[in-house]
Amino acid sequence: MSGIRGHLPKEQIEAYSELHPKARHLLFSYGTAGFRTLGVVLDSVLFRVGILAALRSKKLDGKTIGVMITASHNPEDDNGVKLVDPRGEMLEVAWEQHASTLANAPNEEFLDALENFIRTTRIDLSKPARVVYARDTRPTGESLVKALEDGLKAIGAEGRDAGITTTPILHYLVKAINTKGTKEEYGEDSEDGYFQKMSEAFRKLVSGRPRIQPLIIDCANGVGAPIAKKLSQYLGETLPFALYNADTATPGALNNNCGADYVKTTQRPPPSLIGVLQQGQRACSLDGDADRLMYYFIDERGYFTLLDGDKIATLVAAFIVDLVKLAGLAESIKVGVVQTAYANGSSTKYLSERLPVRCVPTGVKHLHHAAEQFNVGVYFEANGHGTVLFSPSTLEKLETHEPSTPAQSTALKHLNNLTQLINQTVGDALSDVLLVEVVLAHKAYSAIEWNSLYSDLPNRLVKVHVPNRNAFKTEDAERRLVTPYGLQAKIDDLCKRYDGGRSFVRPSGTEDVVRVYAEAVLRSQADELAYRVAGMVYDEAGGEAIRRPKEFM
Ligand code: G16
């Protein structure tokens, strides 16, 4: 085999490959969150992802690569898989196409595609390969893990099974494994290490503050349930959890009428919490793999009020800016915020008046990279997916800065503890819960006070099923449509007719739908605008709007 360094165990790969045939009629694409589709058709993809992860590890000199098997907020029958790079971040974009190519090669062409890939990306096969993997609670997860393991065995990679855990814990593990024994050591490479690190930082941050009232957590009937339960043991009375929707055994329960996506899109509490939630009481929802977080409460008029990713970003960014000032570091540490087009117009206005704000396309990888450009980058998608990144030079500054007053010293201590509390590898619902609770405790804010920082513009998100969502191409961080030609001009015209009207259309990267977002000053107008734009998408592409209320039919 010319042009390839090291040995490729072809016969072994071929033998295993026969156990995981690729169906000819299926086409897979590595999108916003990896491969995601019906779990039962993913067997061949998982086998190949095993091989790909091993090759990624070899390419990076034996660094450990992560593989997470989850479909997050999607229905229970869906499943998916994504790769995690050595620092705990999403797979390098250039490899997404390689992943799709390998996943789509028919069985008889797979070896050729593999050799071609190894040659063009100049992978040295003599290097070691190490992969750590985990899955969520989906029923298809178990067999998909087996397919992945066959991929690892086929190419002779070393695998470590992290079991059933959350996506953010898997990201944490990858970074912890790869930084072990180095100056940047991230923590002990175990679930226990993750809980220890976070809970210790939390205790320090809330010490001396009034006792925190129990927090209701809707676990989406997913993996967040057992993990929140374990975390609760580490937190003890410092933050009591009341866990709801913690049933991971009943078929069909996952993300069904519960979870972060449900509350965000329906703008209602999970039905299981009706009657449980008392006025003003804080509650939150995780999603199926616990990487998204939504807070909410019932206000004094009995209305359900969401505290989404934008509200979390605002709360957290303002808190960090204050601490940086108090620590005497305002001149050298600049805080910035990253959002997407889904960010509520009011949040963008509120934040832009105080901080640099960037808008990027949907997908954690885009937000994460943009946030890395700031000394402290706070990134949150409105759907509750986000975290805070401290740049390496900022971390060093925080560690070495000599405070000149006791007040500076306290603020500095808080900032250093925050760097331990926050999962900086990816959005992490449970780490974000702790972060929010710390800020609320420090500010002595109730949910009502937090919400009053700014008023959200009423908004509506609608899904439209279309025959080909790829016909929808966007620009300007997904705020404008390039194709279908002429549709954007019609949306612009329509928006002008609504006070504060804004709407955009983009193809989903995780579901086979086109998403329509609209906001306006009045609730009725935001709804009307959303369904009118959805109607235009429908007319243009021959689709079907989901959750279209009768009055707009
Ligand atoms: C994934 C991505 C998020 C994205 C979401 C929805 O979340 O990680 O960045 O916002 O999908 O994407 P889309 O609108 O393109 O379907 P998750 O929580 O499902 O992994």
TrEMBL record:
Reactions accelerated catalytically = N-acetyl-alpha-D-glucosamine 1-phosphate = N-acetyl-D-glucosamine 6-phosphate
Identify the metabolic or biological route this protein is part of: Nucleotide-sugar biosynthesis; UDP-N-acetyl-alpha-D-glucosamine biosynthesis; N-acetyl-alpha-D-glucosamine 1-phosphate from alpha-D-glucosamine 6-phosphate (route I): step 2/2
Named cofactor requirement(s) = Mg(2+)
Offer one example of a GO biological process linked to this entry: UDP-N-acetylglucosamine biosynthetic process
| Gene3D superfamilies reported for this sequence | Alpha-D-Glucose-1,6-Bisphosphate, subunit A, domain 3 (3.40.120.10), Alpha-D-phosphohexomutase, C-terminal domain (3.30.310.50)
Q: What is its EC number?
A: 5.4.2.3
| Residues spanning the membrane | none
As recorded in UniProt, coiled-coil segments are none
Query: What family does the database annotate?
Result: Belongs to the phosphohexose mutase family.
Per its record, how is this protein called by name? Phosphoacetylglucosamine mutase
